[in-house]
Write a structure and sequence with these properties.
The structure holds 2 protein chains of 2 kinds. By secondary structure, chain A is of the alpha/beta class. Helices cover 33% and strands 13% of the residues of chain A. Chain A has helices spanning 37-50, 68-77, 93-101, 116-123, 128-139, 159-168, 183-187, 189-192, 196-212, 273-279, 281-284, 310-317, 333-341, and strands at 6-10, 54-58, 81-86, 106-111, 144-151, 173-178, 218-222, 242-245, 251-252. In chain A, α6 links the parallel β5 and β6. The longest helix of chain A is centred in the middle third of the chain and has 17 residues, at 196-212. Chain A starts with 5 loop residues before the first strand and ends in a 12-residue tail after the last helix. Chain B is built from 3 helices and 3 strands, in the order βββααα. Chain B is α+β, with helices and mostly antiparallel strands. In chain B, α1 crosses α2 and α2 packs across α3. The chains are: A alpha/beta, B alpha+beta. The A-B interface holds A 5-6, 51, 53-54, 56, 79, 81, 83, 105-106, 108, 142-146, 172-173, 214-218 and B 10-14, 16, 18-19, 24, 26, 28-29, 31, 81-84.
Chain lengths: 353, 87
C-alpha cells in the first residue's frame, strides 16, 4: 500500500553555482513563476493532512528564498520533520539562527571536492572556503548535519580525502553519492562517468573507513547507476512514498520526472496535493507493479527494485514503461554498457547560466 | 551497547506517533517504521534509564522470554548506535 511519507519542496531553481551534474531540468525558464509563501504553507498543510512526516527543502538553492525560515516554521507547526538541502554559501550566523529558531531538524551541506581548486572548478565559481565556514558554523550549533559530496570522474579519486575532511570537521553523517544521470548530468555524462577502476577503489576505501569509523561516522554510499547488476529501487517505487513539488507548483512522483516528456503533471494551484497523490494520471501510471512488462513482470525482484527508474528507462530506452536499462536483464542494457565505456577526456560543456 | 548504558537519541532523531497509532523513528532523510516492541523500547529512551531497564520493560509489556528480548532489543540498539541514532 503506497503512503506519502516524504515531500521534497523544490523552492526555487535559482542557484549561484553551476555544477555540471545538477539534476534540475535544463529548461529552467519554465519554472520562474514560483509559488508564494502562502501557497507553500498550503502545500505543507495538505501534505501533513495526507500523512507526510518529512519535508525536505531543496532547489536550486533554497536559501535564496527569503521566506525559508517562515516555511520551515510552517512545516514544524504541522508536525513535519524538516530537512534543509543546501550548498551552504549563504549560511551566515544570522540566517542559520533564524532557521534553527524556526525548528529546523537537519541540514545537508554539499561540497564539490576536498581540494579547494578542484571544488571551485566543479562549482564553476569560488565557493569552497565559504562552504567550509558554513560547516564550522553548523558544527558550533546543536543541529544534525550531513556532509554530502556528489562523486564523478573528476573527484572520484579523492574519496579518501573527502572522508578525511569529514573527520576533521567532526561530521557524524557523510553521504557519498555517485552522480545520477539526469538533467545537466545526463548532458555531461561522458565528462562525468567514473571508470570501473575508480568505482572499485572507492568501494574498498569506503568499506575500510566504515569499519574504522563505526559508531562515529555513518557513511552513506550511493552506488553508481551504470555499474551494478540490478537497478536502484528508485524512489522506493513510483508514487509509493515520495513526492516532489517544483518551484512553480507541479507535483511529481520523483524530482527527475519532468524528463518523461509524455507525462503531464498537475499543479497545486489547481488541485490539492492529496488529490494529486491519490488520483492524478502521472502518479497512477507507474504505481505498484501492474504496469510492468517482461522481464519485470515475472521477476522476483519486482517489489525490491520496482523495475528501477522510470526516468532512466525513458532517457535510455525511449519508453518509461520499459525495464530500467541499468538492469542487466533489460533488453536495452547494452546502451548502459556503451555509456559506461564512453569516458571522454572533455571538460563538461553544459552548465546552468 | 552495554546493558548499563543510558541511551539517548542522537541529533536530528525524533520519535513520532502517527495518527493511525503506529510509531516511527524520524532520522535525517528517512522514516523508520517501528514494530510494537521497538516502539515501546524507544519510547523509554531518555538518557536516564539503562538499556537493561528498557529491556525489562519490554519483557513485562509483551510477556516474552528475557533472553529473546535481550537479543531483539539489544540488537536494535546496536544497529541504531552504529548509525548514530542512539548513543
Amino acid at each position: 500500500m503506497s503512503r506519502a511519507l516524504s515531500l521534497l519542496c523544490e523552492l526555487t531553481y535559482r542557484c549561484n553555482l553551476q555544477c555540471p551534474y545538477c539534476y534540475n531540468p535544463l529548461a529552467l525558464s519554465e519554472y520562474r513563476d514560483e509559488l508564494s509563501t502562502q501557497q507553500w504553507c498550503n502545500v505543507l498543510h495538505d501534505a501533513a493532512d495526507l500523512g507526510v512526516v518529512q519535508a525536505h527543502f531543496s532547489g536550486g538553492e533554497p536559501t535564496l528564498r527569503r521566506d525559508l525560515a517562515e516555511l520551515i516554521s510552517a512545516a514544524a507547526r504541522e508536525g513535519l520533520y524538516t530537512n534543509l538541502i543546501t550548498q551552504g554559501t549563504f549560511l551566515d550566523d544570522a540566517l542559520l539562527d533564524r532557521l534553527l529558531d524556526a525548528g529546523l531538524d537537519h541540514i545537508q551541506i554539499s561540497i564539490q571536492a576536498p581540494q579547494p581548486d578542484v571544488a571551485d572548478r566543479i562549482a564553476g565559481t569560488t565557493v569552497h572556503e565559504t562552504k567550509l565556514d558554513a560547516l564550522r558554523r553548523v558544527r558550533e550549533r546543536e543541529v544534525a548535519l550531513t556532509l554530502n559530496c556528489v562523486l564523478h570522474r573528476r573527484n572520484h579519486d579523492a574519496v579518501a580525502e573527502i572522508i578525511e575532511l569529514a573527520e576533521r570537521f567532526g561530521i557524524a553523517r557523510l553521504e557519498l553519492a555517485n552522480v545520477q544521470f539526469y538533467g545537466w548530468a545526463y548532458h555531461n555524462r561522458a565528462a562525468l562517468m567514473p571508470t570501473r577502476a575508480q568505482v572499485n577503489r572507492a568501494e574498498e576505501v569506503v568499506a575500510a573507513a566504515r569499519e574504522r569509523l563505526r559508531g562515529t561516522m555513518e557513511i552513506v554510499y550511493v552506488l553508481p547507476d551504470y555499474f551494478g547488476e540490478f537497478p536502484k529501487p528508485c524512489m522506493n517505487g513510483w508514487a509509493n512514498e515520495f513526492m516532489t513539488v517544483t518551484p512553480n507548483g507541479d507535483v511529481l512522483p520523483c524530482p527527475a520526472a519532468s524528463a518523461i516528456r509524455d507525462l503531464r503533471f498537475e499543479n497545486v494551484r489547481n488541485r490539492s496535493i492529496g488529490e494529486i497523490w491519490e488520483s492524478s494520471e502521472a502518479f497512477q501510471r507507474y504505481r505498484g507493479t501492474g504496469w510492468m512488462r517482461e522481464p519485470c513482470r515475472s521477476c522476483e525482484r519486482r517489489e525490491v527494485d520496482w523495475g528501477g527508474c522510470r526516468c532512466q528507462a525513458f532517457l535510455l530506452a525511449g519508453d518509461a514503461s520499459a525495464t530500467d536499462p541499468a538492469c542487466s536483464l533489460s533488453p536495452h542494457h547494452s546502451v548502459v554498457e556503451a555509456l559506461r565505456e564512453d569516458v571522454q577526456d572533455v571538460e563538461p560543456l553544459a552548465r546552468r547560466a | 551497547m552495554n546493558a548499563e548504558a543510558r541511551p539517548r537519541f542522537g541529533k536530528g532523531v525524533k520519535l513520532r506517533h502517527d495518527r493511525d497509532g503506529g510509531v516511527m523513528l524520524l532520522v535525517p532523510e528517512a522514516a523508520l517504521v517501528l514494530n510494537r516492541s521497538a516502539a515501546v523500547a524507544l519510547e523509554l529512551v531518555d538518557g536516564k534509564r539503562t538499556l537493561h531497564e528498557i529491556i525489562e520493560a519490554v519483557v513485562e509489556t509483551f510477556e516474552v522470554e528475557p533472553e529473546e528480548a535481550r537479543k531483539d532489543i539489544g540488537g536494535l540498539f546496536d544497529r541504531l548506535a552504529d548509525r548514530g541514532f542512539v548513543r
